[in-house]
Amino acid sequence: MKNLYGYDVLIERFLKNEITALQFQDQYLDKYFADRNPLGEELFFKLDWLFAEVECFTHLPIGPEDDPDFTINEDQLRHSAAKTLDEIRALK
Q1: Is the distance from CB of 54 to CB of 77 less than 8 angstroms?
Q2: 28: Cβ–Cβ under 8 A, 6 or more apart, which residues?
Q3: What are the angstrom distances between the C-alpha of 56 and each of 1, 15, 40, 73?
Q4: pLDDT of the chain along its 92 residues, tens only?
């Protein structure tokens, strides 16, 4: 069984609305930057993709001046988080 180092738990808490999108963003970034675990290539790439999505999240309204390739809202973040959770669980 592959160790997911608590990323699955954090994502699940967000998807269950136990934490807000802003809390998820803060906690995910903190965990990602502090992580020194041997993630392995597959897990790393999936978590790194979500990292990019988390970085693009804004809680502010997205306006015409925002680049749609680099700005996502909460619904899009939830979709990305759910996709990543499914993918990392499939690695187990």
Answers
A1: yes
A2: 10, 11, 50, 51, 54
A3: 31, 18, 24, 8
A4: 478 999 999 999 999 999 999 999 999 999 999 999 989 999 999 999 999 999 999 888 777 776 666 788 999 999 999 999 999 999 87
Written as one letter, the residue type at 27 is Q
CB 81, CB 50: distance < 8 Å = yes
Around 22, how many Cα atoms within 13 Å sit in the side-chain half-sphere?
A: 3
Query: Do the beta carbons of residue 14 and residue 78 sit within 8 Å?
Result: yes
* Secondary-structure percent of the chain, ordered helix, strand, coil, rounded to 5: 60, 0, 35
Token pair belonging to 20: 């807000």
- Global pTM value: 0.90
Q: Which residues of 47-78 are buried (b: 16+ CB within 10 A; e: fewer)?
A: beebbebbebbbeeeeeeeeeeeeebbbeebb
